[in-house]
Every structure is written in structure tokens, then in C-alpha cells.
Amino acid sequence: MKKILVLLTMSLAAFSSCKKDDFMDRFVPEVLYYEKDNVENADFTATTLAAGVAEWNVKCRVSAPSKLKEIKMYKTEKGKSEELVETYTDFQLTPTVYHVKYLLNNIGAETVIRIDAADMKDHHTVRSFTIKVTP
């Protein structure tokens, strides 16, 4: 009987010292680009502009169950270095979902938009979108 109590006490001590997993740690921010009014295709990651068109309205839905902390948008035009275009940090009205809408002008070469989204637990998701230009 004494052995059972010792074994039970040791088991309880071992289990109580284990770190409890936070269920929300399993979910990282999600970044989904879209073209029309809503996300229709989760794999939408590129578009080709028609000849003579030099602007594109970048739209993406960023969500995080652990509340958004920061969204950074970067732009890389072919042959140039990456630049930070915009930073979003005000999520008071919608802390878990934010719709980024940003009009890019004067697109003359293939351009890559990169969104880096972070939540309050400092999980990051980075997703890119390519804008190709018809010569």
C-alpha cells in the first residue's frame, strides 16, 4: 500500500510539473490575398496586369485568434531592394481580423508584396503576392 501511495504521489508530482499547452499556441496568424470583395481562393498568390495597367489594389485578410499585434507590408520591385510600405498596429475595433487594402501605383516591373503578420503571442506568418506585368 505504501508503494502505491509513493507511486501515486510521484506521478502527480511529475504531471503537475509539466507545462500545460495553451490551445491557442497552435494557431498562427493567417494571411489570405483576394481580388474582389472577399476571399474566394485561399491559393490566390499572383496576378498579371494587362498591358498599360500600372496599378493594383492589394487586398488581404489577416486573422489571428490570439489577437493581432502588427502587420507589416513590404514591396520588392524586380531589380530593386525591398522596402517597407506600410505598418498596421491599430486593431482596437477588430482585434482578430483585419482587411488590408492598399493601392499600388506606377507598377512598371514584376512586384512582390510580402505581408508579415504577428499576433500577441509573437507568432509570425509571412505570405507573398506577385504582381506580374504584361510587356
- Structure classification: mainly beta
Beta-strand content: 35-45%
Separate helix tally: 1
Helix content: 10-25%
- Largest sheet geometry: 5 strands, mixed
Residue windows where pLDDT falls under 50 for at least 5 positions: none
- Give the averaged pLDDT, no decimals: 89
Round the Cα radius of gyration to an integer and report it. Answer: 22 Å
- Give the SSE order as H and E letters: HEEEEEEEE
N-to-C CA distance: 84 Å
Strand count:
8
Biggest sheet strand order reads 2-8-7-4-5
Shape: elongated
Explain this structure.
The protein is mainly beta. It has one helix and eight strands. A five-stranded mixed β-sheet has the order 2-8-7-4-5, with no helix packed on it. The longest helix has 16 residues. The chain is elongated, with a radius of gyration of 22 Å.
Question: What's the short story on this structure?
Answer:
It contains one helix and eight strands; from the N terminus they run αββββββββ. With 135 residues, it is mainly beta. Strand 4 and strand 5 form a beta hairpin.
